[in-house]
Amino acid sequence: MKTIEKLEWGTFNGFGNRKKTGRLSILVDVNSKQIYPVPLKQEHIDFANRVKGISGLEKLIPSHIDIEEWSGVIRVITGICGMEINFGIRHTSEDVERAHRIAVDYVKNGEISYESLKEEIIYRYCDN
Length: 128
Known about the structure:
By secondary structure, the protein is α+β, with helices and mostly antiparallel strands. It has four helices and five strands; from the N terminus they run αββαββααβ. It has a single domain, classed as Severin (3-Layer(aba) Sandwich). Strand 1 and strand 2 form a beta hairpin.
């Protein structure tokens, strides 16, 4: 399973444009602080099961990183994907916030500019 430590164009080129032009979807393991890019042709839930198995999915938090070619990273959205909507996976608000900080640090430590960065955390699927 490939984990990544900072946002690089090579990662975007291999995993980006997933379901939306300019989007890189990642799963953040809040326990280990590891980041897993979601493969282009795989659903979050299937990939999460490969990473964690059935138990522990509540500790894998989705983030989406939106990138525009000339502006760099424009948005990081954390806390929502098909795992929450279709399969009822729930997270604590603290875990979602922690995952968001990890995802934003991943962007800021990378090689893609982020001057226009907007951040969004979705709490709709939190269990507290």
